[in-house]
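Box 4.2: Ligand-aware structure prediction
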Amino acid sequence: MGLPGNQLASRRIVCLTPSSDTSDYNRGFAMIIDILFGTESGNAELVAEDLAEALGNEHEVRVIDLADADVDGFRQDSLYLIICSTHGEGDLPQSAEPFAAAVRENSPDLAGVRYAMFGLGDSTYPNYGRGGELIDELLQAHGATRVGTFGRHDAAGRAEPGDLTASWASDVLLGARLPVPTA
Ligand SMILES: Cc1cc2nc3c(=O)[nH]c(=O)nc-3n(C[C@H](O)[C@H](O)[C@H](O)COP(=O)(O)O)c2cc1C
């Protein structure tokens, strides 16, 4: 995603650069990472912000609510880390609904766009983690490529979501740095 006006209003983590010259957007950073979150009661947002703080020293990181995301602005030079919960009966959380509707309506060509997926859910519900899966299916249907494992946090379990997302993200980033094999 570029920097359209509607995203300037969203939370943005600006990292310290090793160089004072910021004209080169990617200078001094290993990767450009957009962390997108879809939430209803705030957990995914907290996780996204913690992740941004952890990754911010090494990478250019932005945190964007899916509700504010521009579906026509996905960039091939960014890695998208998507954190999305599930609500209702296996439905998307509120903040992800307008995003999903806009993708269906605008049908953006997401070929070349790379993303990783982490779903928040609760296994005591029948449709465990379905919200993240819905976003995953939608992005793949429009040509985007998922990298790394599909991470999950189960609110019925004992693990802290932040611990799981931290190890998930480091695995994803490790994989995303590897050269893509050519046929
Ligand atoms: C009313 C309600 C419905 C939920 N429905 C589901 C569900 O169908 N499947 C699931 O895996 N989790 C479900 N959950 C669990 C949430 O996904 C989980 O608590 C998550 O951490 C919430 O993240 P959020 O605060 O970012 O929305 C539900 C939670 C609530 C409160």
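In the box above, the bound molecule is flavin mononucleotide. Residues 5-18+26-174 form a domain with the Rossmann fold fold (CATH 3.40.50.360).
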